[in-house]
Amino acid sequence: MIRYIVRRMLWNLLVLWVITVITFGLMHAVPGGPFDREKPLPPEIKANIEAKYHLDKPVVVQYLYYMRDLLVPRYSPTLPTSLQEDALIRWKIGPGYFLWINLGPSYSSRSRSVNDIIRQNLPVSFELGVYALLVAVGIGIPLGILAALNQNTFLDYFGMSLAIFGVSVPVIVLGPILVSIFGVWLKWLPPTGWGTPQHAIMPSIALGLASSALIARLTRASLLQVIREDYIRTARAKGLAERLVIIRHALRNSLIPVVTVLGPLFAALVTGTFVTETIFGIPGLGRYFVTSITNRDHPVIMGTILIYAIFLVIANLVVDITYAFLDPRIRYT
Amino acid sequence: MATQAMRRGAETLAVPTRRPVGFWEDAFYRLSRNRAAMVGAGIVILLILVAIFAPFIAPYPYDKQVLTDRDKVPAWMVKVFPFMEPYARISDRYLLGADYVGRDLLSRIIYGTRVSLTVAFVGPLISLIVGTTYGLISGYFGGRLDNIMMRLVDVLYAFPGLLFIILLMVFFRQVPQEARSVWDAIRIQMYKIDAAFGGMLFIFVGIGLTAWENMARLARGQVLSVREKEFIEAARAIGAGHLRIMFRHILPNIIGPLIVAETLAIPSYITTEAFLSFIGLGVNPPTPSWGLMISQGAQAIRTYPNQALAPALALAITMFAFNFLGDGLRDALDPRMRGTQ
To answer: What pLDDT score does B1 carry?
Structure first.
C-alpha cells in the first residue's frame, strides 16, 4: 500500500511537471505580451518592465526562473515586502520566516501577487465547491438508491427523468433561471453577491445539480448490479433486516464507481467555475482562469492551472486509497 | 407499434422459423418503443428544420439593430414580471423582447440553433475520428507504443480541458500581421476561414483537440477485447495488412459502443460551445450563439431577466432533447447498459 502510494505520487509529480511545461509553452506561443497596450508604452519603459520580470530572456530561461521561484524554499528574517519576493507558504519558524512556493507577481495587478490572489480567492471557490459537492452527493445518492430499490416502478422512472433533467441544465442555463425566479421575481434570496449563507444557496444548487444527476444515475446502476450478487442473497437468507442488508452490505460496494467520479468532480467544483462566479457575482478564483489568459498575465495563468492540477491529482489519489477501504477485495501492490 | 408486434406474431404462426430480425432493425424497434427518446428525436428534427429555414421563420434579421428599441419588452412579459412595470418600455413588435442594442431576441434564438446544432453534429464527428484512430493504433500494436500513447492520454486527461480550449482559442485568434514563415501563413489562412464561418472553425478545432481522449481510451479497450479473436487471426492468415485488419475487421466490431458514447457526449459539446461564447472566446459577434446571449443578458438580469432567460430555456430544451435521444439510443443498442453512464 505504502509502495503504491509513493509510486503514484512520483507519477503525479511527473504529470504536474509536464503540465507546467505544456502551459508555459502554450502561453509563450500565444502572440502578444502582457505589456502590449492599445496605447503603446514608450519603448524604454516597456524594456525596463520586461527586464524586471525577466521577459527579455529566452523562454527556457524564463521557465527556469519560474521553476526556481516555485520550488526552492527560502528562509528570511522578515516577511517579504516586494510582490516579486512573496510566497504562498509563509510560516514563522524561529526568528525568521520559512517561505515556499512563490507563484510570482501578477502583471495586471500592481497591489497583489499571484500568491495573494490564491490566498484570498481560493477559499471562496473552495467553500462554494464544498457546498456544491454536498448538494451533488446529498441529492444524488439518495435519489439513486431510491430508484434502484424501486426498479421499474414509477419512482424509478420519475427519479431517472429527474436525473436527465438535471444533466440538461448546466450552470449556464440554471444560473439565469434561478436568479430571475428566486432573486429578481420572488425576491426570496439575494440575486448576486457573496458573504452570508443566503448568498450561497443558489450558486451551490446551480453548480451541484448537474453533478447530482450524474451521481444519481451512477448510484442506481451500480446498486442494481451489486444487489444481484450472491453475498446479498446470503445476507437476506440469514434473516437480516432489509434495511441492514442494503446499508451494510450492498451500499458499501456499490459506492465505488460513485467515489471514482467524486475525485475529478471535487477538483472541478472547488477550483470554481467561471460561469457560476460570473452569474452570481462571486469573488472566487474562477474568473482569473479566463481574464488572466486574455490579459496575457503569465504568472496568474500558471498559478491557477497549477492549483487546479494539484487538486485534481490529490483528489484522484485519495479516491484510489478510498477504494481499498470500501472494498476489501481491492489490494494494491 | 401494435401492428408491428401483430405482424411479428402472425409470422411466427405462419412459419415455424421466425423471420430473422437484424441488429439495427431490432435496435430501431426498441428505440421507437421509448416514448421519451421519440419526443427527444422529434424535438431534434424540429430544431434541424428551424436551423435550416431560419431566414424564413425569423421575423427579423439576427443582426438588425434598432437603437431606439433598446431593451423593449412585450406587454405579456410585464404581466409575468410585474416588477418591470415602472421602467419597462413596451413594444409588441418583439415577441420575446429586444436586447441591449435593439435586436429581436426571438430571431437571434432562431438563428442560434444553427451554431448549437452544428456543434452537436460536427463535434462528435471530429472527436470520433481522432479518438478512434488513436485508440485503434494504440490497442492494435500494443506493447511499448501502447504504453507511451496511453501515458500521453493520461497527462492530457489531468490537464483541465476547458483551460486547454481557452489557451488554444487565444492562440488561434491572435494572428501575426504578416506571414514570416509557412506556419504563420497557415495560421492567417485558418483565421480567414474561421472569420468566414463566424468563428465556428476554431470552436471545432478546440473541441476536437480536447474531446478525443475519452474516445481513445474506450476504443483501445474495445480493440483489446477483439484483437485476439479467431477472425482476426484468419484475416492475418490470408495476408491482410495492418491497415486492412484495423479498419475493415476490427473497426466494424467496436464502432457500436463508440457511437453510443458520442451520442451521450453531444450535450457536453453544446455546453462547451455555450461556455466559450459566454466567456467571449466562442463565435464572433454578431453571430448569434445562445451562450453569448446568456452572457449579455446576465449583465441586465436584475432589470430585464427575459434577455438571459429566453436563450437559457432554448439551450435547456435542446439539451433535453439530445439527452433523452442519447439515453434511448444507448438502451436500444445495448439493453444491458440500461441506466448506466
So the answer is: 45
Work out the average pLDDT over B73-100: 81
Instruction: Give me the residues paired with residue B73 across strands.
Output: B90
- Residue B340: its pLDDT value, please? 45
Helix (H, G, I), strand (E, B) or coil at A103: coil
User: Cell numbers of B146, please?
Assistant: 501502447
Task: Name the 3-class secondary structure at A255.
Answer: coil
Q: Which three cell numbers stand for residue A194?
A: 457573496
Q: Could you give the residue ranges of the DSSP H alpha helices within chain B? A: 2-14, 23-33, 35-52, 54-57, 75-80, 105-141, 143-158, 161-173, 182-196, 200-210, 212-227, 230-237, 242-244, 251-278, 290-298, 306-333
Confidence grade of residue A134 (pLDDT, cut at 50, 70, 90): very high
Mean pLDDT of chain B: 81
B-contacting residues in A 278-297 (Cβ below 8 Å) = 278-279, 289-290, 293-294
Phi, psi of B64 (to 5 degrees): -80, 115
Strand order in the sheet with A74-76: A74-76, A96-100, A89-93
Give the residue from A3, A7, A11, A12 showing the smallest Cα distance to A312: A12
Residue type, B250: I
Element (H, E) at A98: strand A96-100
CA-closest candidate to residue A220, choices A188, A254, A191:
A254
Q: Contact, B195 vs B284, CB < 8 A? A: yes
Query: ipTM of the assembly?
Result: 0.75
Partner residue facing A168 (CB), from B81, B175, B319: B319
Burial class (CB in 10 A: 0-12, 13-18, 19+), B79: exposed
Grid coordinates standing for A271? 477550483
- Is residue A328 very low, low, confident or very high in pLDDT (cuts 50, 70, 90)? low
Please spell the DSSP secondary structure of B3-27, one letter per residue: HHHHHHHHHHHHSSSPPP--HHHHH
Q: Which residue has the higher pLDDT, A53 or B157?
A: A53
Beta bridge partners of B90: B73
> Which one, of A267, A269, A273, lies nearest residue A312 by Cα?
A267
Q: What length is written for chain B?
A: 341
Give B 22-81 residues with CB within 8 A of chain A: 36, 81
- Bridge partner residues of B104 (DSSP): B98
Q: Distance (Å, rounded) from C-alpha A98 to C-alpha B255?
A: 56
By the CB < 8 Å criterion, does B160 face chain A? yes
- Would the pLDDT of B106 be above 60? yes
Residues B110 and B96: their CA atoms lie apart, in Å, by: 12
